[in-house]
Amino acid sequence: MVPPAKSSDEPAGSPAPAADIVHPFRKPRLEAAIGWLAACGFLFLAMVTVVVGVQSRERALNGAQERAQAAVRVLAEHAARLFDAADLLVEYAAQETAGRPWDEIARSRALWDKLNGQRARLPFLDAIWLNDGAGLLRLTTLAFPAPFSDASDRDVFLFHSRATGAGDALDQPHIGPRIIGRVTNKATFLLSRRLSEPDGRFRGMASVTIDPSYLSGFYKELDVPHRPVTILARSGDLDVLVREPDTAADPAPLSVLTRRAIQAQPEGGAARDDTAIVAHRRVDSWPVHVVVRLDTAPVLASWHRLIAPYAGLGAAAALALAALSVFGFRQAGAARQVQRELERRVVERTASLQRTIGERDAALAQKDLLMREVNHRIKNSLQVVSSLLALQGQAVDDPRLSDHLLEAGRRVQAIADIHRLLYRVDDVHFIPFHDYLTELCRELERSARSEGGDWRLELAVEPAEVPTDHAVPLGLLANELVMNAIKHAYRPLATPVSAEAGDGDGNGNDRPGGSGRDGANVISVGLRPDGDALHLIVGDRGVGLPPDFDWRRSRSLGMRLIHTLSKQLGATLTVENTSPGVRFTIRLPHRPVQSGSIS
């Protein structure tokens, strides 16, 4: 059908009918979409900032708590060794006085000298005290004869005097509360044991006073960040024995948080609140606890400094997002995709960087702490062994056996000194051997002078770093050579003795002779790096060696040790007469440590 023709009288410009109008498609505004995306981006950054901040804050607090727990383990081990050594001395005093009348004990200068000599080996002890059954002081290494003092009203004396059976732990040591000594007039606390008659009746008390300032000094040297408060407290009543830092004569009591933590976990644990972090540990079988308390304020201050760069990075990311949003208002959808990809990469890179840095720092800190703890424990154990050998050497009646035990103790102490340096230095792969050699020689010089004689050690020691695995054998070599010179270089004139059949530890110097030509017993010790070699030289001005002496075939323990240790180090040993005297030279292959090569 043909449509009807339009009427000629219709105006030419009239609008088309409504059904025939086509509306154009309206797309959403790109600016609005980008605005919403920008808002979502800012919200995402805020959430990431909050989550990362909360998590990093928790990691900072957890890290501080772990360091406090590690420090508590070290302190508990140290305190255990200290109390063990003190208890050995108390037992020794009890054995020496067993069965002897109190009047005889009070008058015995020989007993006083013997106990005072043992007490001098333990610097953390002030004195040994022996009280009779009435509490009167009969003997103390602080003075001879003992001043008047009555301990019958002291808690520690009452504890032993009132003990009546096995339930009261008659044979167990006791650690008393912190007191002000009536004789010394200073703060101290006692480690004591009950003295009993053969029939079990109370005879008195043997005790030692432990110096709190020695423990405070050790706690002060402990490398723990954020300046912690270190406490030694008794179990049960939680009486504070030592607090560092604390200048008051009567230390402040434990906080409520600390008391609750110890009561909840008697053997050890940790707790924290909004103001403090507390780590504690019981000292082996001893009724005392070591506590390390950290305020959270400095920990959070360190966390603020640590997270500040990341906050700046977040701010930079926010600014970048704003700039991209402004730019995106003028660009197409492709620009928006680029923006989103960039934001995603920034967030991922930031999170990855945080994880990497945290894991690396934690691993390094744990490794360093473990190495120091291992060397510290080895040093403490070797010192205990050395002290036990020395005590045993003084207890035996055979002079030759006593000399052997004392010599073995010196060798063990030489190894302990190496490990003492290892937990002090920053790099455990190298050790400053010049510091060790100087300290060793001064200790041997003091020991030799205490035994009589005009001894003088002349040191010419240059700085030298040696690898850790060389330090122990080289230290033993130095100890053997110096002790050899002290024992044999200036022997008085005597009947000639064969170099192969000397005394129990002769090193070939057992020939007749006298003192040095200058009238003094001089021993020279030198340490000199020379290119790719390190020279250790020990010489004297004494009697020298017999012409037919062959040190390689000597049967003495000292020369066999020197020969074996030299071979172990790949070193060359040269022995020569210097008229007067003899000189031993150890030439050790040595590569100097380059500056900056030690991490």
Q: How are the SSEs ordered, and which strands pair?
A:
Blueprint: H1 30-97, H2 102-107, H3 109-119, E1 125-132, E2 137-140, H4 155-162, E3 174-175, E4 179-180, E5 187-196, E6 202-210, H5 212-221, E7 229-234, E8 240-244, H6 256-264, E9 268-272, E10 276-282, E11 288-295, H7 296-328, H8 333-395, H9 399-422, E12 430-432, H10 433-450, E13 455-461, E14 465-467, H11 468-488, E15 521-530, E16 533-540, H12 557-569, E17 572-577, E18 582-589
Parallel strand pairs: 13-15
Antiparallel strand pairs: 1-2, 1-6, 3-5, 4-5, 5-6, 7-8, 7-11, 9-10, 10-11, 12-14, 15-16, 16-18, 17-18
Helix pairs in contact: 1-3, 1-7, 1-8, 7-8, 8-9, 9-11, 10-11, 11-12
What's the overall average pLDDT, rounded? 79
Beta-strand proportion: 15-25%
What order do the SSEs take from the amino end to the carboxyl end, as H and E?
A: HHHEEHEEEEHEEHEEEHHHEHEEHEEHEE
The tally of beta strands, per DSSP, is 18
Distance between the termini: 101 Å
Largest sheet: 6 strands, antiparallel
CATH superfamily of the largest domain: PAS domain
Low-confidence stretches: 1-22, 493-517, 595-599
Sum this structure up briefly.
The chain is an alpha+beta fold and 599 residues long. The chain has twelve helices and 18 strands.
Task: Write a structural description.
The structure is a single chain. By secondary structure, the chain is an alpha+beta fold. The protein has 2 domains: 29-330, Beta-Lactamase; 425-589, Heat Shock Protein 90, CATH 3.30.565.10. It is built from 12 helices and 18 strands. The strands form 4 sheets. Strands 1, 2, 3, 4, 5 and 6 form a 6-stranded antiparallel β-sheet that branches. The protein has a 5-stranded antiparallel β-sheet with strand order 8-7-11-10-9, sandwiched between helices. Strands 13-15-16-18-17 form a 5-stranded mixed β-sheet, covered by helices on one side. Strand 15 (521-530) and strand 16 (533-540) form a beta hairpin. Helix 1 runs antiparallel to helix 3 (109-119), helix 8 (333-395) runs antiparallel to helix 9 (399-422) and helix 11 packs antiparallel against helix 12. The chain is flat. The N and C termini lie far apart (101 Å). Residues 1-22, 493-517 and 595-599 have low confidence and may be disordered.
